[in-house]
Write a structure and sequence with these properties.
There is one protein chain. The protein is of the alpha/beta class and 159 residues long. The chain is 34% helix and 21% strand. The chain is built from 5 helices and 6 strands, in the order βββαβαβαβαα. Helix 2 crosses helix 3. The protein is globular. The protein starts with a strand and ends with a helix. The relative contact order is 0.18.
Length: 159
């Protein structure tokens, strides 16, 4: 494991072998863009490195409401540049929830530079849309609609 910084943000590497490989997964933690850290994703990142044999990195991106959109996405883009500068030839983006959103957004922006995406229940719509799904699952499932609204508004206020 190695802790370092990129563009002022902490980034942690998990290496499954003695020397870095040519491929890496950049894992982005969830937490509604407002909570969470690389400490919370330590187990999944360590397990991913051990099980896949691929280098894993996780980024301590800036959190809302102190840093609103697109600050976290800018951090991810800077981290990808750092990984390219370190010589990684294949960069995969992964994340859960809000981290999945950041991975998808960065993947879209960097299309040809990203080898693939691994998204765990990504936020794909960051606003309440009045859909049947939103109504049906707004309460009683661990992450209620009001909390999602608060996360969304904290990260990307307004329309």
């Amino acid at each position: 494991m190695e802790n370092t910084f990129t563009d002022g943000r902490k980034i942690r590497f998990y290496f499954p072998s003695e020397k870095p490989g040519k491929s890496i997964v950049l894992y982005l933690h969830g937490g509604g863009w407002t909570i969470g850290s690389i400490e919370g994703s330590a187990r999944i990142c360590g397990d991913l490195a051990a099980e896949t044999g691929i280098d894993i990195a996780t980024l301590d991106y800036r959190l809302a409401p102190e840093y609103r959109a697109p600050a976290a996405l800018d951090d991810v883009l800077a981290a990808v540049q750092m990984l390219q500068d370190r010589g990684y030839e294949r960069i995969y983006l992964a994340g859960d929830s809000a981290g999945g959103n950041l991975a998808a957004c960065a993947g879209w922006k960097l299309r040809s530079e990203i080898a693939g995406l691994l998204l765990y229940y990504p936020v794909v719509l960051a606003k309440q849309d009045g859909s049947e799904s939103w109504k049906e699952y707004a309460e009683g499932f661990g992450l209620d609609g009001d909390l999602m609204d608060a996360f969304n508004e904290s990260y990307a206020p307004g329309k």
